[in-house]
Amino acid sequence: MTTAAYRPRDDKLTLAEICKDLKISRSTFYDWRAKGRAPRCIKLPNGDIRVRRSDYEIWLDGREDAT
C-alpha cells in the first residue's frame, strides 16, 4: 500500500468529498448544517470546512433506516 493511497481512519474529508459521496450540492450541505442535520464539522481559520471520517461514518450510521 502506498503512502498516497493510505488514509488513516480519522483523516479529514473536504466538503467537496462529502458532497460527492452523498451526491448533493454544496448548498444542500450548508442548508443541512444550518438546520443542525449535517455531520460535525471543523471550520479552519481560512473558512474551509473539514469533517473527520469517523464523525462522517457515525453520522451516516445514524441515518440508516431500521425497516
What does this structure look like?
- The relative contact order is 0.19.
- The protein has helices at 15-22, 26-34, 53-62; strands spanning 12-14, 42-43, 49-52.
- A hairpin with a 5-residue loop joins strand 2 and strand 3.
- The protein has three helices and three strands, in the order E-H-H-E-E-H.
- Strands 1-3-2 form a three-stranded antiparallel beta sheet.
- The chain is α+β, with helices and mostly antiparallel strands and 67 residues long.
Search tags:
alpha+beta; globular; single chain; 67 residues; 3 helices
Q: Summed up, what is this model?
A:
The protein is α+β, with helices and mostly antiparallel strands and 67 residues long. The chain has helices at residues 15-22, 26-34, 53-62, and strands at residues 12-14, 42-43, 49-52. It has a three-stranded antiparallel sheet with strand order 1-3-2.
Topology, number of strands: 3
Order of helices and strands, N to C?
EHHEEH
Coarse structural class: alpha+beta
What summary fits the major beta sheet? 3 strands, antiparallel
Tell me the helix content.
Answer: 40-55%
Radius of gyration: 13 Å
- Average pLDDT, all residues: 89
Query: Low-confidence spans: pLDDT under 50, at least 5 residues?
Result: none
